[in-house]
Amino acid sequence: MSNIKVLTVFGTRPEGIKMAPIIKVMEKTEGIENIICITAQHREMLDQVLNIFDIEPDYDLNIFKPGQTLTEITTRALEGLERVIIETNPDVLLVQGDTTTVFSGALAAFYQKVKIGHVEAGLRSGNLYSPYPEEANRRLTGVLTDFHFAPTENNRQNLLREGYPDDRIFITGNTVIDALNYVVKEDYEFKDSKLNSIDYKNKRVILLTSHRRENIGKPMEDIFSAVRDIVNKYSDVELIFPIHLNPKVRDIAHRVFDNQERVHIIEPLDYEPFTNLMARSYLVVTDSGGLQEEAPSLGKPVLVIREETERPEGIEAGTAKLVGTQYDNVYRELDILLSNEEEYHKMANAVNPYGDGKASERIVDIISQNYKYSK
């Protein structure tokens, strides 16, 4: 039997991080020819990931433009991917997650009648507009998918409820855990002298990330204000906020956090320094999806500053808590974790439901073993 030709498509930093371990496994797997295509929906942040994992794409669509709309991303990705698919004629196109690149990749493959594998399939928030447009992207991608690689049993159940066949759903764990094992190092040194100067052993560092479209405005202002006031309450607490590039996020952040003691607003970090910073932090406050999976594997409690999450497994396991965006709720939950050691350790020691670091091996094995039955 000839090699299985897999076209791996991704376009943003989170996709790149979660695809990288799969690419590394495929490089070592006989019987699979992997072709890598990036859309570069995000440019600079994606390039950082490629460098960390030593990945060189075969195709770079380079679609990023400042101020790009979702429609522009979709159409440029579709047109570019059509050319790549026709030229490479893959057996399987692999996408990951819920970005516009993911949906565009699946749609382009469908138009060319190419089988589709969806890594991180079956996540659902229950609200089509939150997160936006990610929830719609993942649902639309699911309709076109042949191999649903679901991280957890809960994700599998979501897919079964939507009518997808059980024999096309595979529980694998999440590849983000595989990626973490690749980059987190105990002796890691930051290039940023400010990060190296913080006393992580004697200070409790809150790591904050926030960028969701639906949080911009009053919700984000309330969140930041609650975090600021908590830092002021506890003299041993410091805040590190790698600030998003979005000008609206930056405006709110500087209005709330400027001239505050023990608050460090820094530029966005590459994946490697960011994960090592997370490993040294005391707890994480985030509206990110991926951090809800990553932080628990490092024993860090996560407060999720959103109204709903497509990752309920962490909430159910006790590794994360959904706190919403209102000032009082965010302040109260932070206060509990900083004042009650029992509550902190309960979250820090909860079992991470997102896997054991071998998801990539499972996915590649499933493609190898199952592709011949899906032709």
TrEMBL record:
It is an enzyme of class 5 (isomerase). Keywords: Isomerase. It holds the Pfam family Epimerase_2. SUPFAM superfamilies: UDP-Glycosyltransferase/glycogen phosphorylase. Its EC number is 5.1.3.14. It comes from the Bacteria. One of its GO terms (molecular function) is UDP-N-acetylglucosamine 2-epimerase activity. The keyword Membrane does not apply. Residues 26-367 form the UDP-N-acetylglucosamine 2-epimerase domain. NCBIfam families: wecB. Belongs to the UDP-N-acetylglucosamine 2-epimerase family. PANTHER family: UDP-N-ACETYLGLUCOSAMINE 2-EPIMERASE. This is UDP-N-acetylglucosamine 2-epimerase (non-hydrolyzing).
